[in-house]
Specification:
three-stranded mixed β-sheet; alpha+beta
Length: 67
């Protein structure tokens, strides 16, 4: 559900000339593998940052600039 919503919102923002939103997801720390890898599949919309109980993990350059 969320990936579909995010894809549609990004398309709408592009059509309207809006700036793209910073996409942030919530996660439990145990969902992140030891190597710092976050499991994803082909239908996942890429996120800019991940928020866990351990803190914020910037993923994209846009998130790194804002954190």
């Amino acid at each position: 559900y969320y990936d579909t919503f995010l894809m549609r919102y990004q398309e709408l923002a592009k059509e309207k000339g809006w700036s793209q939103p910073l996409l942030v997801a919530l996660s439990y720390s145990v969902q992140i593998l030891e190597e710092g890898i976050i499991p994803v599949n082909s239908t996942d919309v890429p996120i800019d940052a991940l928020v866990t109980s351990s803190g914020i993990i910037p993923i994209s350059p846009a998130a790194s600039e804002r954190v």
